[in-house]
Amino acid sequence: MSAGAGSAPRSVAVVGAGAAGLAAAWTLVRAGVAVTVYEAAGRAGGVIRTERHDGWLVEHGPNSLATIPTAVEPLFAEAGLDRLLIQPGREARRRYVVRDGRPVAVPGSPLAFLRTPLLSGAAKRRLLREPFAPPRTEGGEESVAAFARRRLGPEVESRMIDAVVGGIYAGDPERLSLRHAFPALHALERDHGSLLRGLLRGLRRGAGRGRAAARGRRIQSFADGMEVLPRTLAAALGERLRLAARVAALRRRPDGWEVEMALAGDVVRRERHDAVLWSAPAHALAALELPGADADAVARIAAVAYAPVAVLALGFRREDVAHPLDGFGMLVPAAEGRRVLGAIFSSTLFPGRAPSGHVALTVIAGGRRRAEDAALSTQALTEHVMRDLRELLGARGEAVFRAHVRWPRAIPQYELGYGAVHAAADRLERQLPGLLFAGSWRHGVAVGDALSSGIGAAQRLLDGIRTSG
Predict the structure, then answer these.
(1) CB count in 10 Å sphere of residue 389
(2) Rounded to whole angstroms, how far apart are CA atoms 244 and 263?
(3) What are the structural domains, with CATH classification, of the chain?
(4) Nearest residue to 142 via CA among 342, 344, 327, 419
(5) pTM of the shown model
(6) How far is the C-alpha of 17 from the C-alpha of 411, rounded, in Å?
(7) Helix, strand, coil percentages, rounded to 5, for the chain
(8) DSSP assigned state of 267
(9) Among candidates 83, 388, 36, 110, which has minimal Cα distance to 220?
(10) Which contiguous run of DSSP H or E holds residue 187?
(11) Which residues contact 412 (CB under 8 A, 6 or more apart)?
(12) Per-position pLDDT tens, the chain of length 469
């Protein structure tokens, strides 16, 4: 039986064992579908990667989960992941943004906002006028930077929004599309005419939901690190998961799909499935043989830009860092002229990240605007980073621990014109029934978004729906 003709598939190939692919496979297996997951790498999890070294726990990729989407909650409950979640300490609520060479706490209340040195008096007055800012009149997409300057003022854009964009996307706010990178902000202006009015109405609607809702908005992780998530799902899949199995071709046949994979030693194997769920990175499509596909649509997806990122984990004796590290971490806007995009105060965020008497920092460098830094050697990157950490956090001496990972393609960039990427994926799904797309390039870059994307695509297959709507 072939999928896409109004019936659910009996056999599905999931390409890619990142968060989206693992969540999709889990959903399909729970529904009784025969699933095979093909992963080109030798491990599952994609950019989620945790390692332990002599008492240090290092996150080389995402360091936490934000709100778990409603669609993902059953997976966490059934897999037992909800019982393994840990919460950060109260200090993690504090966030720092660097201003004029020092980390400044982001204001958490109206009174703190009035006093914060993060913004000048003129910038605060401009921000308070946001409800009266006129709507945008010209057509076409708007960048995140242009939107922020228009509604919030140039100083808020360069000092606050730029830092946030660096922390989420490692991206360039002048290139990112507001509608696709920050759809909630786009919707606030569209629906309420003002960000502040929309936020206030949302707070009033959310009042009285209780502590459970508040907890749901907090960041979370696992005592043994974020890789607990993919390891748990991969273990449940067992032999259904095939590592070091690169899918080289997908061919639609009258009775379904033929999946051709390249194994070690130039071995080629072909297997048949009713449907294929592609959750590998967008750029991997460039090397895929996909007969009958719209070539322009494939090229559009394969050309999605990714920000290169270097993650440098550093450990220090507590007395060798002057800053109290009493927060989640610090973000560094481009206006500061620094080499680091930001630093996570890892040992403050969750317990067990550093040996007693020590502190752990996870520094992020590179990104869309300083791509060359993501390719630096460990020694060169450490020299640049330490210069910034000495001046910003009062770090002194040498780090007693160091771990460095490069991600040449870390985070997909939802840049201006990204609607064409979504349209290309929709077009291919219509053209090739039984082929669906999921992943961080499709429905959001956060871990929760990727999980939700995989679950949603799996459910569409189960429902026998061919298009993404």
Answers:
(1) 22
(2) 7
(3) 11-48+225-304+414-462 (3.50.50.60), 89-118+306-412 (3.90.660.20), 122-131+141-206 (1.10.3110.10)
(4) 419
(5) 0.92
(6) 16
(7) 40, 25, 35
(8) E
(9) 83
(10) helix 183-192
(11) 281, 282, 304, 305, 306, 440, 441, 445
(12) 455 445 678 999 999 999 999 999 999 999 999 999 999 999 999 999 999 999 999 999 999 998 899 999 999 999 999 999 999 988 888 999 999 999 999 998 888 888 999 999 999 999 999 999 888 878 789 999 999 999 999 999 999 999 999 999 999 999 999 999 999 999 999 888 889 888 887 766 655 444 444 444 579 999 999 999 999 999 999 999 999 999 999 999 999 999 999 887 677 899 999 999 999 999 999 999 999 999 999 999 999 999 999 999 999 999 999 999 999 999 999 999 999 999 999 999 999 999 999 999 999 999 999 999 999 999 999 999 999 999 999 999 999 999 999 999 999 999 999 999 999 999 999 999 999 999 999 999 999 999 999 999 999 999 984 333 3
Tokens encoding 88? 């950060």
As given in the structure block, the two tokens for residue 250 are 């997908």
Residue found under tokens 């020299």: 383
Tokens of 176: 């990112």
Run of H or E residues at 462 = helix 447-462
The token duo for 441 is: 């390039």
- Tokens 């649509």 locate to 297
Q: Which two tokens stand for residue 199?
A: 């936020």
Structural tokens at position 402: 């160091």
